[in-house]
Here is the input.
Amino acid sequence: MSAGDLHTLVGKSVPRIDGIEKVTGAARFTGDLVIPDMLDAKVVRSPYPHALIESIDVSEAMRLPGVGAILTRDDLQDINPYYGNCLRDRPLLALDRVRFVGEPVAAAAAIDKTIAEEAASLVKIRYRELASLSTVGEAMAEGAPVLHEKIFGAGEHHEMESVKAGRRKNICHEEHLERGEVGKGFAESDEVFEEVYEFPMVCHSSMEPHTAIASVDRYGITLWSSSAHPFLVRAELAQMFGFPLSKVRVVVPYVGGAFGGKSYFKIEPLVVALARKAGRPVRLIQSGSESMLTNRRHSARCRIKTGVKRDGTLVAREAELFLDTGAYADNGPRVASRAVTRLLGPYHIRHYRINVSAVYTNTVPAGSMRSIGGPQSIWAVESHMDVIAERLGLDPLEFRLNNLLRRGEELKPGGRPIDADLAQGLEKAASMVDWRRRSRAPGRGLGLALGLTDSEAMPVSTAIVRLLADGSILLNAGTTEVGQGARTVLSQIVAEELYVPIERVTMHGTDTLVTPFDRSTGASRSTTVMGTAVRAAAIDLRKQLTEAAAEILKVSSDRIVCRDGELIAGEKRLDYGKAVRTFFGMSGGELIGRGYVRPGGALDSALPVFWETGMGAADIEVDSETGEIRLKTYATVADVGLAINPQQCESQDEGAALMGIGHTLFESLHYDSGQPINPNLIDYHVPTVADIPDNFESALIENRDGPGPYGIKGMGESGVVSVAPAVANALAQATGARIRELPLTPERVWRALKRARPGSFDTAPAKPARNEPTEDHP
Amino acid sequence: MSAGDLHTLVGKSVPRIDGIEKVTGAARFTGDLVIPDMLDAKVVRSPYPHALIESIDVSEAMRLPGVGAILTRDDLQDINPYYGNCLRDRPLLALDRVRFVGEPVAAAAAIDKTIAEEAASLVKIRYRELASLSTVGEAMAEGAPVLHEKIFGAGEHHEMESVKAGRRKNICHEEHLERGEVGKGFAESDEVFEEVYEFPMVCHSSMEPHTAIASVDRYGITLWSSSAHPFLVRAELAQMFGFPLSKVRVVVPYVGGAFGGKSYFKIEPLVVALARKAGRPVRLIQSGSESMLTNRRHSARCRIKTGVKRDGTLVAREAELFLDTGAYADNGPRVASRAVTRLLGPYHIRHYRINVSAVYTNTVPAGSMRSIGGPQSIWAVESHMDVIAERLGLDPLEFRLNNLLRRGEELKPGGRPIDADLAQGLEKAASMVDWRRRSRAPGRGLGLALGLTDSEAMPVSTAIVRLLADGSILLNAGTTEVGQGARTVLSQIVAEELYVPIERVTMHGTDTLVTPFDRSTGASRSTTVMGTAVRAAAIDLRKQLTEAAAEILKVSSDRIVCRDGELIAGEKRLDYGKAVRTFFGMSGGELIGRGYVRPGGALDSALPVFWETGMGAADIEVDSETGEIRLKTYATVADVGLAINPQQCESQDEGAALMGIGHTLFESLHYDSGQPINPNLIDYHVPTVADIPDNFESALIENRDGPGPYGIKGMGESGVVSVAPAVANALAQATGARIRELPLTPERVWRALKRARPGSFDTAPAKPARNEPTEDHP
Here is the structure.
């Protein structure tokens, strides 16, 4: 039975409700807004990776006609300038020293952007340069300078799981997970494999750069922002600037891509402080390059060691992952805590010891990015699995299937048992590249990978659904539409529960003044968690509507059914609008439904709320002359429980896979002596339409086994995790070259091909030295 | 026991929550907003009172650089151009003919206001003038041209009481009320008095003229407006332009005075049509003069005839009121229907026959204005009462007291019984001018009057109250803050019910996209009706909060009390913010309370929802040389049931009385041959601070006998009704001169003094001829 048999709208690929608005340019983003008397801002950024600020002179800048205000550290005396979602380690402007190239040191607001830029250029700052830490290795070396001497806890933002903080040797955060006896496990193993994998710094590259407009007066703060987390921004600004939550208004219209880069707090505290100084609204629209110097994904080095029986049974694992979290913690602690389980893979392993460290360096702060901690860890785990399979002479698919966790089994003690049929998904992905044919043309290879991630979807959302007097419906839910299609899917849920066409439902943007609380848009949580709140609100509304109709039609409410916008009791019919009007005795009135989700409430209380699963399979062709990899087929499979909108699910999953293709083949933000080399979209290559695989296929696994409405679960991130290992595994199968560092650029592949013995695998070094690169760096 | 003994905030004159914001200029009104790409508009208005439009040529105007669009009747083909809250008799632009000087015929939108004005001046319109109807007399004469040949019913806007329409002899609407046998009543009377009173056209003179900004696209309409009735505007625009309610967004920030002049629909349909044509947002800020040509109070002529026993017992009344409703119905039918009961006074009269007609003329449309139909009818009734008392040799106070309706008695069959102690209020007003001293200095006189009005407060409101995770509270209620202090009073109710300081509560402006339905701001209804919805929402919230605390504290919810923002159960205490955070298991979350008011719901179901009562007493001094009247003391008394904020109630009542002083002494919009003579604030005199009475006193009657929360009832309009008769009665007492036409300008008083025999009353003519003026016109 398909979803369509049970539901009228759920399971249907209705067109995006914001599609036409966006393709015609009618949709408004933050940068499209005009606030009366608004000034434009330009940020003065540090040119040094690490330096003391000796003096700041704004006198010349202030003399420029048209300048409204220059914000410096001197303007932050009366507020708490520190912010941070895990640790409050970051001031909104550098105070005594700068810690990365691009860090804001001052900001100018002027009547137009050109004057603001000129004013910014006239701010004179004297620095005293300090030794800088470009890499995790440097940061952890004995005698390295300490980047943060004191850090404030994030207090209330320690949400639901404590984040352990330790700054020994610039370690921002450490996370540890252990089970069984690892030493004994390795001793019992027939073979032990140990490798090191490296993952580059990559950027979110959203089409819309970070943008915010702030207005501050004695009554509070109003902020229009491209933020994906308006309610968390509200709380942070309230804490910093000393207002109650009710006096901080955060408005988020459409957002042009987020991918984690607009999570938590980015430019908002700075823009608010500047507007406060200026006494007028201030707008900051960053350039794409500035946004690349605002946040990025953690680069990583992973040492992974696995003991196996000769038959391929996994016995023990030890893994150590170092995440380069950059100059400030941002979401590093949470990325570290999420990466831990990802390093286990979705496999039975009796003995394990996992350690993940987020380490401060003098680089751009790293934070959330699609599947936090996932690509870095799964890149290592799933490459490693193929290396083991090859050494043991096992088929990589069979090897994985034999070790996979089954439904109901636990990945780690006390967590939600596995709620998916992982084997089904992996078989599906394999079948999509015709895995079992095994006939390889020269230069062609197949590769597989899968990932299981706990996205840490927080089970807290609220929603309001209002039925107006003509039967039209307004949905007020705080999910940010970042391009993922949330408004469409949430509207589908409302329309489903109220038995109306989707055109009847309008969902608008977030305005914390009037939109009820949602924890955040991210962690693949919106359809599952907010969807549950929205559904509860719609059901609450339907109940009131049915009771109103019972009163009007003079029948018992349990005799009334809803269908096609009508309330029906036998021969009696009443359309919704008429029911509202009659209930209120006039042409107006409305009914208000509300829904809450909280731990232990409407959703199953086990955490994580759901496991997010993604499988990938690659069929590649390698050009042995140039080292270029061409994806002939890439298949991505997501276990979604049930797809409310299959087309949107597929788009999400393919979008995630394409992002994965980016870090697999092209993307890397390079540093040289603390200076970023390529923070622009000319020198930093994101995939274009030319880079899409010849056959780009996606499939959804739908077993209605998720915790959300109708059996759904979160998706949209997992497509990113399997691409790199699947492609590297295919490359190894095709050429024998095993590459352990991304991206798989033509140069890197070409060099590896030169080193590999043609026709055989480049076997893993048994125990590579800890920090030794596994092949040449570009 | 005072209110303060029972309540913590109700009954306290807390400062206005929007006070500082307004006096510092921080408050934003519609005209302060800037919408991206916005054009400015200028309306082309008819110079003729009545004419056919032969042609409109916009070609030259369109050639002017910077012009975005010129709207004419040709642009209205695909919509329903007619609007109206009682009758849909008005097109948003004149179609075939114009019906008053100032009627919009075209509108220009351009990149700035200067260009828009020039473009408007270049629109060439050829008119063919028609005979015009300047007065009700002309409009009802045999052979008069018919102003409206066809009128569409207002359909859904026929709210709760049908409005009977008849256009015979340009009669827009007639309302009739009859009881007993009037002929028999007059026959049984010892004396019969008949007089004619006239009331001028007066203007609202709000500080903020009508202003609106509209944006229209395929997705719907967004309108920012100075409207007092955003939800009715939404419904009207949806009907005219063919959108569902959910696609019409009406945003109302602060409004700078309304007084009925911003009720229902004024410039909004025109601005929306112009924005639709322009394809860009369009702003129209009218001048003060334009707003005077947009709406006004009905001028009136009232013939009143009363039969009395020699002891002063009222026996029979016949009254006929003709209201000049101008060129379009606007709220004329409702004004007529409300005036009917006002002509009975709050007195026992066994036999009566009342007829009220709203008549079309070629003048500015008349609509709602503070106490609709009240000043016109009570001017006649309460002057007439003094004339009768004088003739019968009775004290005007005793005469009134002897005939007053008592609590629980009916004014008209089937309506709400009198819910006030009218005698108490009248005695109070009399005592404030030391009525019983009766010693008169030369040129000094005392006068009394009172009015009982059914404001037709519609009992339909909804509200949302949200408790945030730090214990701060957001109130989302659709009452428009027009200067009356609604946000303060409604916030007091929330704070009272939730046991928090008022600073914890924030109430914001209306945005129909997110603000739940309220019928309207007017009819003195907001504190009583919306207050009931707000209180219900707060109680609903408190219930959820208590249940959450019961779960957290592990006690029964009936053991929990709320006090000072805390939930207390014995020794256990939990502040509200902590309760929310614990309930949701994180630093966020919120609880959402909702409240509804509907007929038969939380408010007593009898209509009117309440009787609004106002008493006035004047002590005046007349300068016999100049005819100037000086108010030595004016005392205004309102029966408010209970004052939630006594200072605001007094301000409201004094503001209403000052508005009454305007039409009593100064105000009149004059027409000459269909041309308005003084539509500007130079030639049209509104009271200034210099015109405030030497002693300006107000008192509130508080018997907790209203239907609203804590026993409140509506107020704020009734102060306007008693001023004119009280002053005219004092003038007659002081000088013997009885004037039956307002305003009591020095010239008119001087002429009356010349005619009156010094030292005695100018007794009423026994039966003045129907349309004969009772004294010289200025």
